[in-house]
From TrEMBL:
InterPro entries: DUF455, Ferritin-like_SF, UCP012318. This is Rhamnosyltransferase. Pfam families: DUF455. Residues 47-70 are annotated as: Disordered. Keywords: Transferase. CDD domains: Ferritin_like. It comes from Novosphingobium lindaniclasticum LE124.
Length: 265
C-alpha cells in the first residue's frame, strides 16, 4: 500500500535533528512530486514539532541584543538568527500542507511541500555558511516566538494563510534587501548570493499564500480584503510595519491597497 502524504509530513515534523529534518522534508517533497505518496490524511499533525536540544529557545524579550556592527560576533549572530528563521519555516510549511491539505486539495499540498523543500535548502545553505564562519546552528540562543503564529491559527486555514505567508513571510521581503546590501558591503559575496536566492524564493512562497488565500475567500463568499484585515487583526494584533518592499510584494500578489490600510507608522 502506498504511504500517505500525511505520514511522510508528520515524520519530518517530528524529526528533532536539523540535518535529519532537512533530509526527511526534501524526501517528502520529492516523493509527492514523483507520485509515491497517496493523497490521504490518516494521521494528525503534532502540536509541537521536533526541536534539537540546542539552540536554547528564549522569549523574544530575553534575547541578547544583536547590535548593528560588522564585527565577527555580529555577523555570526545575524546568520544564526537567519538559520533559526529558516529552520522554523520548514515546520511552518510542513504543518500547512499536513494540517490543511485534506480540505485544500492536491495543488495546495504540492505547493507547500515545495515551500518546505525550499526552506530546508535555505536552512542548509545558511548552516554551511555559519560553519565556514566558525560557528553552527545551536551555538547561540534563538527566539521562541516564531511557532506561536502557527499554533494560534491551527484551527483555521484562512487565518493561517493570512498571517504566516501574507504577514510574516511578506515581512521577510521588506527586510531582506537591506540585510543583503549590508552583507554585500562587508565583502561577503557568498552570503549575499545566499540571501538573493532566499529573496527570490520567498516571493514565490508569499505568492502561494496569497493565491490560496484568494481561493478560500472566494469559496467562503467573503470579500477578500475585509476578510484578510479581520483575520490579521484577530490573530496578529492588527498592524503591519512599514517600510514595505512594494515591488517584491506586488510580484508576490500583494497589493498596496491591501496592506497599506493596516500599516502602523
Ligand atoms: Fe526561507
Ligand atoms: Fe519562505
Amino acid at each position: 500500500m502506498t504511504r500517505s502524504v500525511a505520514a511522510a509530513i508528520r515524520e519530518a515534523l517530528l524529526e528533532c535533528d536539523p540535518r535529519a529534518k532537512v533530509m526527511a522534508t526534501r524526501k517528502a517533497a520529492r516523493d509527492w512530486r514523483l507520485d509515491r505518496l497517496s493523497f490521504a490524511f490518516d494521521v494528525d499533525m503534532p502540536d509541537t514539532p521536533g526541536r534539537p536540544d540546542a539552540p536554547e529557545l528564549l522569549p523574544p524579550n530575553r534575547m541578547p541584543k544583536r547590535g548593528k556592527g560588522g564585527s565577527e560576533r555580529g555577523r555570526i549572530a545575524l546568520w544564526h538568527a537567519l538559520a533559526h528563521i529558516e529552520f522554523v519555516a520548514i515546520d511552518l510549511a510542513l504543518d500547512m500542507a499536513g494540517r490543511f491539505g485534506r480540505e485544500m486539495g492536491e495543488t495546495f499540498v504540492g505547493d507547500f511541500l515545495a515551500v518546505a523543500a525550499d526552506e530546508a535548502l535555505h536552512y542548509a545553505l545558511i548552516d554551511r555558511h555559519l560553519r565556514l564562519l566558525g560557528s553552527h546552528y545551536g551555538a547561540l540562543p534563538a527566539h521562541d516566538g516564531l511557532w506561536e503564529a502557527a499554533h494560534k491559527t491551527r484551527g483555521n486555514v484562512s487565518a493561517r494563510l493570512a498571517v504566516v505567508p501574507m504577514v510574516l513571510e511578506a515581512r521577510g521581503l521588506d527586510v531582506t534587501p537591506a540585510t543583503l546590501e549590508r552583507v554585500k558591503a562587508s565583502g561577503d559575496a557568498r552570503g549575499a548570493s545566499i540571501l538573493q536566492r532566499i529573496l527570490d524564493d520567498e516571493i514565490r512562497h508569499v505568492r502561494f499564500g496569497a493565491t490560496h488565500f484568494a481561493d478560500v475567500a472566494e469559496r467562503l463568499n467573503e470579500d477578500h480584503d475585509s476578510l484578510w484585515k479581520a483575520l490579521v487583526s484577530r490573530h496578529f494584533g492588527g498592524a503591519v510595519k512599514p517600510p514595505f518592499n512594494d515591488s517584491a510584494r506586488l510580484a508576490a500578489g500583494l497589493s498596496r491597497d491591501l496592506y497599506g490600510s493596516l500599516a502602523c507608522s
